[in-house]
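Ticket #4471: structure export looks truncated?
Reporter: QA, pipeline team
Priority: medium

Steps to reproduce: submit the single chain below to the structure queue and open the exported record.
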Amino acid sequence: MPERDEVDRIVDAWHRERPDLDFSPLQVLSRVGRLSRHLDLARRTAFSASGLESWEFDVLSALRREGYPYELSPKSLLQQTLVSSGTMTNRIDRLVDRGLVIRRTDPNDGRGVLVRMTDEGRHRVDGAIEELMTSERAILAALSSDDQEHLAGLLRRLSLDFD
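Actual output as written to the record:
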């Protein structure tokens, strides 16, 4: 039997105190929550190494994934990052102030605006994603490639209802 972890101890304590309840969801979701906290720390560390906040990485990575010329409308950015319009406006303003993006008029719609990542923004997001992939590989190192693929499939199935 594999080693016991903190979740096993928590579940055992709950079973002792409330034997009338089924605590099997804790076996999965408490571990996901604990791993999430470790992942959050790894991400903050990776982004910080490139001088970025998590929200800056979110916006810049949406632009980077778009491909050259690394530009999207604010509406597309807020759809990808799941924030409100006011929040996105504030984020774009702050990224402009830092020289990581520029705003320009949409040539296809004179009333519209496009947000384009600068070379500095691309440099920072590329460094952050490299750091992140190194950190995330380390988090998953205890699992074989097959186990990682299997786990990804199971998590995908769980997350489909939320996306």
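Status: closed, not a bug. The export was complete when the record was re-opened. Leaving a note from the reviewer for reference: Residues 24-49 form the longest helix (26 residues).
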